[in-house]
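>> received
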Amino acid sequence: QVQLVESGGGLVQAGGSLRLSCAASGRTFSTYTMGWFRQAPGKEREFVAAISWSGGSTYYADSVKGRFTISRDNAKNTVFLQINSLKPEDTAVYYCSATYADYATTTREYDSWGQGTQVTVSS
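>> returned
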């Protein structure tokens, strides 16, 4: 498994932006599909975005399309989530995850998870 550490969360006003980062350990980062999930209080963890090992394919939840952008830098073992036009309903703990599966958009498809970073959006 790969070790994942998220950063970049914080408190932001509605309409603002954040850039989340996830640093991965290990030499095989470039072979993983990487994903971002989020979990709001009292809710299940939900898929946000994923990116293929090469960065050539990306997938988004309908609720974030057009506002969130996932990207990766395999040379730096890092995956990013750019979040724009934040809404109060985006408030959640955001988790980075890794899998060898392609087109993975569910929690059960992912093997490795970070500890999460809190994003709080005030109205």
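>> DSSP finds no helices and eleven strands in the chain.
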